[in-house]
Amino acid sequence: MKTRHTHLIRQEAARLGFAFVGIARAERLDEEATRLEQWLQADMNGKMQYMENHFEKRVDPTKLVEGAKSVITLMYNYYTDREQSDPAAPKLSKYAYGKDYHYVIKHKLKDLLHFIREEIGEVDGRCFVDSAPVLERDWAKRSGVGWVGRNTLLIHPKAGSYYFLAELILDLDLVYDHPIKDYCGTCTRCIEACPTDAIAPAGYLVDGSKCISYFTIELREALPEEYRGRFENWMFGCDICQEVCPWNRFAKPHEEEAFEPHPDLLEMSKEEWYELTEEVFREVFRGSAVKRTKYAGLKRNIAFLRE
């Protein structure tokens, strides 16, 4: 039955548009818990206090779903080769071009969970898309859909890293996958390319409080002066450590209509971004993840690049 159930889930996930699926046994992440504790003690979470909350839930899936037996990791492609037409315009991360991925993927996950209950029976489970205390990259690594690279992003050996990660935690026994080898080798391109030195000299550790994505999305207060001139024109998020990663030569454009940008987004000039009004912000970023930083936050980021 385990094999049949696993096959059914993989088949339906593929039909829903998930590119890769990996399954790991639901158990406490002891080694990862120690690493997370050290990261928090070193204040690498910056002002992201929420990272300190629900510690046991983060490292133990049975605290999220009672009797959990399997953690399914699903990868959803967001890569696009489309770029902003003005090379001098402030930049935003590719993942934020289209509709907010939280809603797009959560909807698909709920459909998958509904399918599981229809086809397999009474299964207790929950869906997660970057919105709850789940160590998604650690689960992805355990389930063999990639390795965690020096830039701490999940890298698939045939597809790169431009993927959203999502999880289903179920009280259902399935056939489990195994971790794969780390293929970063001696490459240190991401470390050398990071303009704020957020990645540790040996890699595999990112100081969140130095990351451009943290500054432009998470930080609510004034941007620190010592980082002025080091953002390389990023106004929301940052893709530098993905852009330089050799494994992303395998990235292929997504086929998700919801991730297509607003018609005006890629055409806006540097001057238009500098003069951005709240009305244009609302129109261009309707239903977008960029709403998280709000109009005032994006204006703050743009001003920081400008001065």
Automatic annotation (TrEMBL):
It is an enzyme of class 1 (oxidoreductase). Its cofactor is [4Fe-4S] cluster; cob(II)alamin. It is found in: Cytoplasm. NCBIfam families: tRNA epoxyqueuosine(34) reductase QueG. Catalyzes the conversion of epoxyqueuosine (oQ) to queuosine (Q), which is a hypermodified base found in the wobble positions of tRNA(Asp), tRNA(Asn), tRNA(His) and tRNA(Tyr). Monomer. Belongs to the QueG family. This is Epoxyqueuosine reductase. It comes from Flavilitoribacter nigricans (strain ATCC 23147 / DSM 23189 / NBRC 102662 / NCIMB 1420 / SS-2). The lineage of its organism: Bacteria, Pseudomonadati, Bacteroidota, Saprospiria, Saprospirales. The gene is queG.
